[in-house]
Design brief:
There is one protein chain. With about 160 residues, the chain is α+β, with helices and mostly antiparallel strands. It folds into 2 domains: about 90 residues, no CATH class; about 35 residues, no CATH class. The protein is built from 7 helices and 4 strands; from the N terminus they run αβββααβαααα. The protein has a 4-stranded mixed beta sheet. The longest helix has 27 residues. The chain is elongated and about 80 Å long.
């Protein structure tokens, strides 16, 4: 068995909560789990091991998106099976915690970015906005319109 195949067997043997069948790029078929097969996965070509190690959900998702992986059966069943398996990289308890932290950090960072760029006081904005303090385009009906009038024209 090649190192690539051994790596894949090791990753896939603990990935799913439900029985499945995997066909590898060289035609080898491997069954994972006991009972009736719920879905089949076909690797048309190997995915880079470094991508699987770095971010397995992204690697497998992009592999599917780029037709490196095909699925026989409901795609949702595959995802549910991964989320239900406690040994999987996407196990729901771990994933939701990670996702919540990531979203929290993203929201916090977004708030900080907005404050950094926009909460700088009205004195700055008065330098280049008109009396309406409108931060948008104006509509000049004539060349004689002031910026203030053009802001009022657009309403």
């Amino acid at each position: 068995m090649s190192i690539d195949k051994a790596f894949y067997h090791n990753v896939l043997k603990n990935m799913f909560a439900d029985p499945c069948e995997v066909t590898y790029w060289d035609g080898e078929i491997k069954r994972y789990g006991e009972g009736e097969i719920r879905f089949r996965i076909h690797f048309n070509e190997p995915l880079p091991k470094s991508e699987i190690i770095g971010d397995p959900s992204l690697a497998f998702g992009e592999g599917y998106m780029h037709n490196k992986i095909d699925i026989d059966g409901a795609f949702e069943k595959v995802i549910e099976s991964i989320f239900k398996n406690q040994n999987s990289f996407l196990y729901e308890k771990h994933s939701y915690v990670k996702l919540a932290k990531k979203l929290s950090n993203t929201l916090r960072k977004s708030k900080e970015d907005v404050q950094h760029h926009y909460d700088i006081g009205n004195n700055f904005y008065r330098l280049w906005l008109d009396d309406t303090m409108s931060y948008s385009c104006a509509y000049f009906e004539s060349p004689e319109d002031s910026l203030y009038q053009a802001q009022k024209n657009k309403r």
